Each structure stands twice: as C-alpha cells, then as structure tokens.
Amino acid sequence: MILTTTRRQALTALGLVTVFIICLQLLAHVAPSSSRRTWANLDEIEVDEDPTRIYRTSKVFSESFEHALDDIPPHQDPLPSSPNSNRINSSKNSKPWIFFVTPTYKRKDQLVDMTRLSQTLSHDKRIYWIVVEDREMPSMRIRWILERSGLPFAHITTLTPEGVHARGVEQRNSALQIIERRKLNGIVYFGDDDNAYDIRMFRELRKTTGVAVFGVGFAVGHYERCVVDEETGKVARFATNWVGGRMYAIDMAGFATHSSLIIEKQPRFRNDWGVGQLETRFIGQLVGNLTDLQPLMENCTRIYVWHVKTQGGRQDEVKNDKEWKRLSSLV
Ligand SMILES: *[C@@H]1O[C@H](CO)[C@@H](O)[C@H](O)[C@H]1NC(C)=O
User: Fold this and answer.
1) Radius of gyration over every alpha carbon of the chain, rounded to an integer in angstroms
2) Using a 6 Å cutoff on CB, does residue 233 contact ligand 1?
3) Which residue's alpha carbon is nearest to atom 4 within ligand 1?
4) Which of 164, 285, 310 is nearest to 224 (CA)?
5) Which coenzyme or cofactor does it need (predicted)?
6) Which residue among 41, 89, 113, 289 is least crowded, i.e. fewest CB within 10 A of its CB?
7) CA distances for 313 relative to 7, 197, 207, 308, angstroms
8) How far is the CA of 68 from the centre of ligand 1 (A)?
9) Bridge-partner residues for 52, per DSSP?
10) Which of 231, 287, 228 is nearest to 257 (CA)?
C-alpha cells in the first residue's frame, strides 16, 4: 500500500518534471526567436518616420530598398521584388496579367485595409500588385504585407504635392508611367485599398480588351452600375444617384483598361479636375463614346466590388429598402 502510493507519487513527479522540461525547451526554442523578431519589427516600426534609419538598421531589407524605387522590369523578366518570381516566370499559364494599382497612405486603418486586400489578391496568382505609397520612401509595414502576399509586386512611392487635396492622383499616374515605360501587357485596374473585392471579379477583368465597365456596390446599401441596351448589347447609360454632369458616371473601382490602350494613349489623372470628375475625364482620354465601353460582370448586372467606407451615410443604416432588396439580388 505504502509502496504503491510512493510509486504513484514518483511517477507523477517524473511526469511533471518531463512536462516541465518540454516546456522549458519549447520556450528556449520558440519564445526567444519569435520575441526577437517581434522586437526587431517593433524597432523598425518606430523608426518608420525616419526611413533612412530603416535603411541602415534593416540588413535583410536594405537590398530590396535599393530596388524599391527602381522601375519594375517587364513581366517576362525576373521580378526581384517577388519571393516567388521563379514560379511566375516558369509558368506556362497564359492567363492575362492583372496590374492591380493601389495608392495607399498612412492612416489609422491602413494596415487593416492592406491586410484584407493582400489576402483577397493572393487568391489569384496572375496579379501584379503595384502599390504606390504617398510618402517619400517605401515603408516597412507595407513591404511586409507585399512580401507575405506571395504576389509579384512593385513597391514605389510618390508624394502628393503640397496643397493638393485629391488623394491617389499622382500615385496612379506613377503606376501608369511604369506600365507605359515597361510596356506591360495585361489589364490595368485601379483597386483602392479600402474596397472589398469578390474574387470572381478577376476572371471577369481578364476579358477586358479596351475600357471595360461594371457595377460597384456601396456599404450603405446602394449601388452604381452601367446599363446595357438589350438589343445592341452595348452600354446605354449609367444608373447612379449622382450624375454630376459626367459622361462616364462610374466609380474608380468600376472600370478596367487594357494596358495596350494605356500605352497608346498615355492618359493621366489631374489634380485640378473637380470633385468626382477623375473617372469620367480619365476614361474620356481613352474612348470617344459610351458604346465604346465593354460591359463586364454579366452585362453590368452583378456586383463584385464594394466601397466599404462611404461619406455621408451611417453604415448600419439602410436608407432605401427597395434598392437594398435589389442590391441583394445582384451579388
Ligand atoms: C449581354 O447582353 C447581350 C445583349 O442582350 C447578350 O447577347 C449577351 O449574351 C449578354 N452577355 C452576358 C454575359 O449575359
């Protein structure tokens, strides 16, 4: 009896010691290395305001930074910014590339938006992500997200000039310059970081031959879309709450352009265009008429892209039940 108890206690003690040792080993192997990484990362985030310090302190990334402001190479060349460039190069896949242009700037929800976007885009392996930061030097936080996405990418920067309120104008122009200069062949799409994208959209985008248009949903429960003439199959008009004298009354997220048209026409956005005129005036440089537009997403009847943030509306409030019901049938 006494012997049995002692043995049981001894076994329990042995078991506890084993568990303790395993825990110690786990801590020794896992905790220090992961916390080291975390600390290093935190340090680099803190020096974010001084990019030259990141450059000096981050050995791993200093090489990438040397290339960060370079032009990106044509897509058939090695893509030094992508960890998976070999896979892309050796791919026999002939699906057209999508050049997904995302201007971004420092704000409280930048990382939320960029994380979500990167994980949407990484569902599709033929996306070249062109991210243009509104700052002087590329930031580490964005570089990490780009690296983790596994996508080939260009990480460049363009500062918005002093006194200019329109965001994204100069940044999109920089991306256009790259596409033209490198004669990139594929579909150009201006995909802001604060939208939500249905991955079904990518397959549709690849049908773009000139300028393609499609509907955009808004989180407050309304939508804008092109309307197709059933007889001709051409775009006849746009259904929107606000026309504002626009010929092409479509949102930035509601159109795509084949890069050959960009290379031919060299269109640009301009800071001095009025509020809400960016899209229509940009498209005006590419086509001459509504009927030149190619309707996508099942003749503009499906919503595959959403504006998550909208001004002038509480997001938990659906203002128009009829439109909400209709919108719900479009997804
Ligand atoms: C779009 O509309 C045209 C004309 O009504 C029709 O011929 C075509 O099949 C439609 N395409 C799709 C994808 O629904």
Assistant:
1) 25
2) yes
3) 233
4) 310
5) Mn(2+)
6) 289
7) 72, 21, 34, 11
8) 44
9) none
10) 287
CB 237 within 8 A of CB 290: yes
pLDDT tens-place string over residues 168-188? 999 999 999 888 888 889 999
Q: Name residue 307's amino acid.
A: H
Say what the pLDDT of residue 290 is.
96
Å from CA of 156 to ligand 1 middle? 40
| Residue 198 marked as a ligand binder | no
pLDDT digits (tens, 9 = 90+) for 198-254: 999 999 999 999 999 999 998 888 899 999 999 999 999 999 988 889 999 999 999
The one-letter amino acid code at 157 reads T
Phi-psi region of 233 (alpha: psi -120 to 50; beta: other; left: phi over 0): left
Largest CA distance in the chain: 98
Ligand 1 lined by 301 (C-beta under 6 Å): no
Find where tokens 């008009």 sit.
237
Query: Which listed residue (44, 133, 170, 279) is catalytic?
Result: 279
Token duo for residue 39: 């600390």
Residue pair 198/192 in contact (Cβ under 8 Å)? The answer is no
User: Mean pLDDT over all residues of the chain?
Assistant: 78
Report residue 260 as tokens.
């050959």
- In the sheet that 294-295 helps form, which strands lie side by side, from edge to edge? 153-157, 127-133, 97-104, 186-190, 255-258, 211-213, 294-295
Smallest CA separation from ligand 1 atom 7, residue: 233
Residue 40: pLDDT over 70 = no
